Amino acid sequence: MIDLGLTKLALIGAVALIVIGPKDLPKVARMAGTLFGRAQRYISQVKSEVSREIEMEELRKMQKEVESAAQNFEQDIHKEFSEAQQELNELVQPSANSIYAGHDTYASPSDEAMIEKAKNFRRRKVAKTSNIPHWYKSRHGHRSQVISGAARMAKHRVNRSPSSSFF
Q: Which NCBIfam families match (predicted)?
């Protein structure tokens, strides 16, 4: 860069005073200052854009690395899952020793017990929730059907026909 010392600036100022004259020198100095400020702002904008582009490029590289790592991880998981599924299928393969009393290998006594337990749970749940008979609810004003607040308000509104108006 250009090295401007105090003596060089004084020499430039003296030449400018002689060439431009004392009358127009303040206007030229103002204009030179504004042009110098614009140049500085432009340079700072260019620097910030370049640094932003560099950061964006770094982020793109990082994104590609993360995506490749995620794909590798996903492939590893799928591979492990397929291997585990294959091992389970080998363990559950039907064999002559595992077939009993007309059932296939996937049905076991524990499955039947779980189904029966679920049925009993449903029966108990229905018995608990319906303790009050329907005839008692309807006689004593319990709601048998739930309706929204807007629907309840609509039941009590006076219906006005469009032809009847106040005017």
A: tatB (TIGR01410)
What span, in angstroms and rounded, lies between the C-alpha atoms of 66 and 86? 30
Q: Which two tokens stand for residue 28?
A: 């030229």
The token duo for 90 is: 């080998």
Per-residue CA distances from 72 to 13, 75, 79 (Å): 68, 5, 10
Token digits for 159?
């219906």
Task: Quote the CA–CA distance of 121 and 127 in Å, as a whole number.
Answer: 10
Q: At what angle do helices 6-20 and 25-92 cross, to 10 degrees?
A: 130
**Residue 103 in tokens:** 């059932």
Run of H or E including 61: helix 25-92
pLDDT digits (tens, 9 = 90+) for 11-49: 888 888 888 888 888 898 899 899 999 999 999 999 999
Distance CA 107, CA 105 (A): 6
Structure-block tokens of residue 157: 């509104």
Q: Which amino acid is at 150?
A: A
pTM higher than 0.70, yes or no?
no
